[in-house]
Amino acid sequence: MEFDPWSPAFVADPYPAYAGLRARGRAHWFEPSRQWLVPHHADVSALLRDRRLGRTYRHRFTHEEFGRTPPPAEHEPFHVLNDHGMLDLEAPDHTRIRRLVSKAFTPRTVEALAPVVARLAEELVDGLVAAGGGDLLADVAEPLPVAVIAEMLGIPPADRGLLRPWSAAICGMFELNPDEETARRAVAASVEFSAYLRELIAVRRTAPGEDLISALIAAYEEGDRLTEQEMISTCVLLLNAGHEATVNTTANGWWTLFRHPGQLAALRAGEVELSTAVEELLRYDTPLQMFERWVLDDIEIGDVTVPRGSEVALLFGSANRDPARFARPDELDLSRADNPHVSFGAGIHYCLGAPLARLELAASFGALLRRAPRMRLLTEPAWRPGYVIRGVRELRVEL
Q1: By three-state DSSP, how is residue 285 classified?
Q2: By C-alpha distance, which of 134, 128, 132, 126 is closest to 397?
Q3: Which of 15, 215, 264, 290 is the most exposed, having the fewest neighbouring CB atoms within 10 Å of its CB?
Q4: Are 244 and 358 in contact (CB under 8 A)?
Q5: CATH fold of 8-398, please?
Q6: Backbone region of residue 134 per phi and psi (left: phi > 0; alpha: psi in -120 to 50; beta: other values)
Q7: What is the pLDDT of residues 145-178, one digit of tens each?
Q8: Domain residues of the chain, as ranges?
């Protein structure tokens, strides 16, 4: 199979194509998206830390200097929102924003959420059990991280139904070559979400609470504060990144477990540490298959010179199945101890929410293992068309 991110067959199982790319070399030009594909673990891991690459180039070059066409003016609301979030910034802005956000997003904050996360997970699983089954994606995987991040941000329960559709529309722009309809939906969601958060921030300025938005308003260091746009972009990033990965790891992970009954039986019997199993599920079928970076200065990848102005596509899914780094990489081994997967990235853009994601995954998998010990799959799931953020449409189960 060839690398074809728009093919349903490829999206359903990209791993044979990755093996082919690894066998053929370390960097491959892919004309349809005009990117260099990088499939090896060692290269992906090194390039995530290489300061000659960046999530943006605007801190050093104009669009024209970098040989790029500016985005259409009608897409501006999306780009204003996206470009002020720390995931798409480089130093010094990235350093400043991450430092300030980290003050409000501490390990103690995450630890304090553990009882809330456990309670939410158990309530959702109890609902699934009471119904005798349902769609694991819609009934458990999606509501949990949305509820947790909304709780953190202090978004009123009555408004939380707005969040997932906004997030899904915005994340459509992270796919390869999004069409105009995708862009239109993302722009509309960016405008609506930004307006909603602007009002919520105004309320918190006059009446601070114990939530993350209030903490972001208060966070400062040596005179530095987050601008209102940076605050809005940070909240949207925390929501999008804070649940897309967890939702898809939960659903994809259970689909993986159902296809490996021996491993699932060992997990249910307590023969495998749940935390170790979660890391293996993150490696085996990562929810984020690709992470893109701009080449700010010429780099060498093997015998290929990748020139400044290029874009590289770091293939996380391929890196996590690289036999040069993982023994028997295509086998699911829930007890795998040596597991340096790249699913949360590396370097300065390493996922700030990784501890929270791990907490949520342990809570939902743990609750399902305890409260639904005989849960089984009803029908093989279909995959959503997206490749970069990859997940199933639904996961129908019975108890």
Answers
A1: coil
A2: 134
A3: 15
A4: no
A5: Cytochrome p450 (1.10.630)
A6: left
A7: 999 989 889 999 999 999 989 999 999 999 999 9
A8: 8-398
